[in-house]
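>> Question from a student workshop board

For tomorrow's exercise we were told to take the sequence and the ligand below, predict the bound structure, and bring the output to class. My setup keeps failing. Could a helper post the expected result so I can at least see what it should look like? The ligand is nicotinamide-adenine-dinucleotide.
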Amino acid sequence: MDKMFEGKTAFITGGGSGLGEAIAKDFAQHRANVVIFDISSENGNRVEEEIKIKGGNALFIKGDVKDSTSVKECVAKAFDKYGTIDFLINSAGILRDGLIHKLSEEKWELVIDINLKGSFLCLQECTKRWIEDAKNNRKEHISDYPDKRVINISSQAAEGNIGQVSYASSKAGLIGLTKTAAMELIRYNIKTHAIMPTLIETPILGELLEKEDGKWRKYYEGRIPLGIGKTRYVSDAIRFLCSNDSWFMNGVILPINGGRLGPL
Ligand SMILES: NC(=O)c1ccc[n+]([C@@H]2O[C@H](COP(=O)([O-])OP(=O)(O)OC[C@H]3O[C@@H](n4cnc5c(N)ncnc54)[C@H](O)[C@@H]3O)[C@@H](O)[C@H]2O)c1
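>> Workshop helper replied:
Here is what the output should look like for this input. Compare the format with yours to find the bug.
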């Protein structure tokens, strides 16, 4: 283990699976205290256990990002346990795909509530505490306030994708959220970024890559010059955005595109 994030705490929504899980394990490997906030107890407990077995520090908290009461409680538990949160990583997300003329209102609402509102609620709850703390400990220079980072997981789909109107809208919304937060919160030394990954192999894809004899796997392998992504490509980028090496950056919208520019 190296000590890059020693004494720092990362709060990772959706930390029980896929990208969130990879980020949680990577940050724990670099000595961060890791809070896994997920709706799935089975996965959350598993990731917590797997991190602890390797000597890391992890806490699973079950909760629902679209429910403001749940978010408040989970953030409070994290602050109680570790004193503060240094990195908020908004990774919880779902897909409910469908063409515009067929998509139900329920599916639209669920995707927007989890992917977009959920990220806002977590940002808001952390921000309230960070700002209160900053106001109680006034500093002369912005850089004297504790260094906080927020990373929102948008998607390349934010640029539009046929059949993904709710998902693409939620992910485009996260770009506006990120830019606004970056402008508004930098006065407290809170830096906000978003990443826009291309297709990464995780459970969110369900059967997509295997169905129809791997037709879609071949299709995407043909469309992404460097191939379908691995979770490590995302956790590496997020580690950079939370590191001292990116200290001077704010409001970065970072494509993780496997070499492909433009829609998939
Ligand atoms: N995998 C990809 O190709 C890809 C590409 C671009 C962006 N993303 C985004 O990355 C993020 C992570 O996706 P993933 O691929 O790891 O998917 P995943 O399904 O493996 O993980 C998502 C996690 O979010 C949790 N979650 C869902 N609803 C929740 C809720 N209401 N409250 C708390 N937790 C909840 C799930 O339980 C799960 O653990 C998502 O926002 C997704 O949109 C994924």
